[in-house]
Design goal:
Strand content: under 5%
Distance between the termini: 17 Å
Number of helices: 4
Shape: elongated
Number of strands: 0
Oligomer: single chain
Structural class: mainly alpha
């Protein structure tokens, strides 16, 4: 979804879409590492739902940013 927003809404380049994917991947790896290190969750649904909440918030924030390059950076 983020590369589509980058290319369509922010009028970004392929390099910008690649940067977004790298940042997204690093965030996913970081989240997986945190969950792996603290694997003594009583309720495993809480971190799962928190991750979906964070993705929803970042998509909503991306939607209200100004168009074109100003909003991307």
């Amino acid at each position: 979804m983020y590369p589509l927003i980058t290319m369509g809404y922010f009028d970004g380049t392929v390099g910008n879409a690649g940067l977004v994917q790298i940042v997204y991947s690093v965030g996913m790896l970081s989240g997986g590492t945190i969950i792996g290190l603290f694997d003594k969750w009583k309720d495993r649904m809480k971190p799962f739902l928190l991750s979906y909440l964070m993705i929803g918030v970042t998509l909503a924030v991306s939607g209200v940013l100004p168009l074109y390059k100003e909003g991307f950076f």
